[in-house]
Amino acid sequence: MGKLIEYIARETDGEPFGSFKYGYDNDPSLRIPYEDLSQQITPKQYAESQKIPTSRDMTKLALQLRQYPPLFRYFLDGSRMVYKIDDIRYDKKVYPLIAGQISVACCERIMQDDGVSFAAFQHVAEEAYSVLALPNAANSKGIDTSVFFRSLCQKINELEQAKRKRIDIRKILAYSSSQQDSSFDKLATARIQDEMIDCEKKIVAQLVSQHKLTQDDYLIKDGSLQYRTIKTGDYGEMKKIRSNYQRVVGVSKMFNPNLMRDNRGRSIAADIAKLPLFHRTPAIMWEPDPAFCEANFAIWYVRIRERDKTTTPYSGILKIEKMLMTGEEAEYGLSTDEVDMITANIINERNPVCYGNDARWANHLYPVYMTECYCKSKFKSEYYFLNIF
Q1: Shortest CA distance to 250 belongs to which of 275, 274, 273, 219?
Q2: Global pTM?
Q3: CB under 8 Å to 326, separation ≥6 — which residues?
Q4: Which of 5, 223, 269, 273 has a CA-to-CA distance to 99 between 20 and 30 Å?
Q5: Is the Cβ–Cβ distance between 236 and 198 less than 8 Å?
Q6: Going by DSSP bridges, is the β-strand pair 248-252/218-222 parallel, antiparallel, or unpaired?
Q7: Helices (H) and strands (E) in the chain, counts
Q8: What percent of the chain has pLDDT over 70?
Q9: Per-domain residue ranges for the chain?
Q10: Are 282 and 52 in contact (CB under 8 A)?
Q11: At CA 37, angle to CA 231 and CA 76, rounded to 5?
Q12: Do 125 and 55 meet the contact criterion of CB atoms below 8 Å apart?
């Protein structure tokens, strides 16, 4: 058993068990989705100005836009790794002691003076640090939990062992020790994911405050924008920061097509799978449960790879999301011209490809792939990280 674990147990009046340490990230039961996968999406109304019931060909527009500077300049991705480092007893209950590594980065594409030739790709913002997740029951002093854990975190980082191993535990996150309808492992993992999502929101807020996101410089966020409402973090309530996402587009490589329904309640999964190359679906409006997410969305799909050159019906198809900001957008949706412009620019991001480097190559946009690689390069190896404790 590591000295750090013994120190944490001593400071929190707990009893450690010396359990086997391992990474959680290959356990599908502990994956926390961005999207509310319980809600079917039925298009009661379109989310664009032109009501076009069939797919729309973007080939011509994508070709035309290649002679102009690309719409997307910034690319955001977040990742986290979660590890079981011990079990610990508090008040006759046994809880997992969880550690995590968080990495969130935004990269910028810099163009040549002609505006259309690629010059450089560099990071402009990042958050990379380690966290611990402990149950509320670990607060044995009876003081405010956030104050107690902040003090404990500072003490851990001041230990000689921590300094020698260059440990930087940025935060100790509290998970519920009383909730009975979910595993403690999943509660701890969700807290670490919430922290990662808060970092994503923080970076978007920084870019907006620096006036970097404009009508000519959009940001692609890897994955869904359906941030669920959380009570923790500085950016937990989406309604307070929704205006930051005016120039942000969410692009998902993986999605559940069976949740999409037509206005008669029938699945349109087959229609999505049969999309011709460079065609997009109509943008539909989705109003999620406000308890889950405090924003409405325009959602549509586009095929960026040939069907006969990929492995599954949904390889080469991307799900695109845009938050609806104004009252006019909430009532009438986005301008069809804006939906077309976003889609055509995303099609133009499909090359080059990361074929051979990632099994998801058909659904990758290369700048997003590069940002994801940069994020993951900040992680310590599992072997090294686990032996810190």
Answers
A1: 219
A2: 0.92
A3: none
A4: 223
A5: yes
A6: parallel
A7: 11, 13
A8: 92
A9: 32-71+216-350
A10: yes
A11: 65
A12: no
